[in-house]
Design a protein that fits this description.
It is flat, with a radius of gyration of 14 Å. With 49 residues, it is mainly α. The chain has two helices and no strands. The relative contact order is 0.08. Helices cover 69% and strands 0% of the residues.
Amino acid sequence: MTKQKSRDKNLQNVAKDLADSPVNSHQAQQFQQQTNDHRHQDALNHDVE
């Protein structure tokens, strides 16, 4: 499957997330924690005025 250069960042992230399938529950938890950490940091960055 060829990769398209899409301008839809959300679609790119979803495709990237689907490509990363966890092997076990620990790895799945690590992926989820990384997502949560990124969201938390993004929220902190947006609070700065």
